[in-house]
């Protein structure tokens, strides 16, 4: 089956289609794996434990991006993913052939479970990804395309992160604060672009996963140290509950947002990364915050955020806090942020701070 509709006119997949794919994801994974090992029997025999583990996590990732694209009618989400994947593999001299085989198998086993309209959506989206991986579309790297240029200020800081020099990173931050750079400006104009740069360097295979982890740990320290030097407004008798949604392991951005509230005089509760929806709901009930601030970093987390908002609206009715959302993926796909119908979306911690002050 080939794609028939103009990709710009794609509607979202039906809710029955989505439920079926979510419920049967494990089964689809097994069917795709069987097909894949039938095509590549040597891979299965050689080291099937490692290969099987990698296969499972790669499949999960393809499925996450695909489902987000299908439910949000945003083909761009899957195309951006394919560009990103191709970049990551090209930079490591890895062939995309196996990924393409997996996507073809996914197309087969997914469409077998969908009605005609949903099949067209799935096929159009998967084919658009395969075209990019096989080089039929213009090469570009659109993820993060809206990121600010790394300003001069953060170049030295980035170097300290790359070389895992904690003291040097801390010295740079302290010197900038002594020159009256505010906490929020330090966070948004120095640490944030440097961390984006760290992501780019990892993507280009120029730094290791270990370097990326050390850079995060150093920036967490820098944030804590700088927070202690920040200027605070008087208390305003307002409470915010900050949390990353289930599945989001990126916590630094939310920490900056929580700092913006705290230095503006708000009482802050910080739940951190990867918090289950049920825990967030229970904490809203206990804390009764004025604002609930939620962070998402990868496209598929938008589905979990949507589910959380639906449950909150059903459960809290009149006592619903103001919901503020943000995160890398909402910056990249702003139309999805608006569709979630939260009370507010901000691009970064500076925008939050400006609104509060
Ligand atoms: C450090 C890092 C990690 C760390 C995070 C540790 C931690 N405790 O935070 C770890 C190792 C856990 C990690 C894991 C992964 N990561 Co990562 N990671 C990064 C990296 C390098 C930096 C993240 C960061 O700190 N950014 C700086 C902060 C300050 O920016 P920010 O999050 O955008 O936040 C600002 C705004 O978005 C906004 N905001 C954020 N939250 C909120 C909330 C509200 C309410 C509001 C109003 C605003 C707001 O304000 C913030 C401050 O101004 C990014 C690169 C990047 N471009 O971000 C990759 C990146 C996001 N990761 C990526 C990937 C692929 C992954 C993994 C899938 C890797 C893997 N194979 O395991 C996993 C997925 C984890 C998950 N499910 O969430 C990719 C995503 C690509 C894509 N296609 O979407 C990126 C872009 C790297 C890359 N260039 O390829 N990662």
Supply database-style keywords.
Rossmann fold; binds cobalamin; 357 residues; globular; single chain; Globin-like; 5-stranded parallel β-sheet; Methyltransferase, Methionine Synthase (B12-binding Domains), Chain A, domain 1
Query: Judging by the overall fold, what is the CATH architecture of the largest domain?
Result: Orthogonal Bundle
What is the CA–CA distance across the termini? 56 Å
Radius of gyration: 22 Å
Discrete helix count? 16
The beta-strand count equals: 5
Residues in helix, %: 55-70%
In terms of DSSP E residues, the strand content is 5-15%
Query: Topology as H/E string?
Result: HHHHHHHHHHEHEHEHEHHEH
Sheet with the most strands: spatial strand order: 2-1-3-4-5
| Low-pLDDT runs | 1-7, 137-150
Would you give the CATH topology of the largest domain?
A: Globin-like
Give me the secondary-structure category: alpha/beta
Multimer state? single chain
Which descriptor suits the 3D outline?
globular
């Amino acid at each position: 089956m080939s794609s028939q509709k103009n990709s710009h006119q794609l509607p979202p997949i039906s809710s029955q289609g989505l439920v079926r794919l979510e419920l049967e994801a494990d089964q689809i994974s097994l069917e795709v794996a069987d097909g894949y090992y039938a095509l590549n029997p040597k891979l299965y025999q050689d080291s099937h434990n490692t290969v099987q583990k990698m296969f499972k996590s790669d499949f999960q990732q393809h499925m996450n991006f695909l489902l987000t694209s299908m439910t949000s009618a945003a083909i761009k989400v899957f195309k951006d993913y394919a560009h990103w994947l191709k970049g990551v593999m090209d930079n490591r001299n890895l062939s995309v052939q196996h990924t393409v085989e997996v996507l073809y198998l996914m197309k087969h086993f997914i469409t077998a479970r969908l009605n005609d309209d949903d099949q067209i959506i799935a096929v159009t989206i998967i084919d658009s990804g395969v075209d990019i991986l096989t080089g039929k579309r213009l090469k570009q790297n659109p993820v993060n395309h809206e990121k600010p240029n790394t300003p001069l200020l953060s170049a030295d800081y980035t170097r300290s992160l790359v070389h895992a020099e904690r003291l040097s990173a801390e010295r740079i931050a302290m010197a900038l604060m002594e020159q009256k750079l505010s906490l929020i400006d330090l966070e948004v104009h120095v640490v944030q672009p440097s961390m984006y740069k760290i992501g780019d360097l990892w993507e280009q295979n120029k730094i290791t996963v270990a370097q990326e982890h050390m850079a995060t740990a150093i920036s967490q320290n820098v944030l804590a140290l700088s927070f202690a030097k920040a200027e605070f407004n008087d208390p305003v008798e307002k409470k915010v509950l900050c949390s990353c949604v289930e599945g989001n392991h990126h916590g630094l951005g939310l920490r900056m947002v929580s700092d913006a509230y705290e230095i503006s005089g708000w009482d802050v509760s910080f739940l951190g990364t990867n918090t289950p929806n049920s825990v967030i709901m229970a904490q809203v009930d206990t804390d009764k915050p004025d604002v609930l601030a939620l962070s998402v970093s990868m496209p598929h987390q938008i589905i979990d955020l949507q589910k959380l908002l639906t449950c909150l609206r059903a459960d809290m009715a009149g006592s619903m806090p103001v919901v503020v959302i943000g995160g890398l993926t909402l910056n990249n796909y702003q139309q999805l942020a608006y569709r979630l119908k939260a009370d507010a979306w901000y691009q970064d911690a500076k925008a939050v701070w400006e609104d509060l002050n």
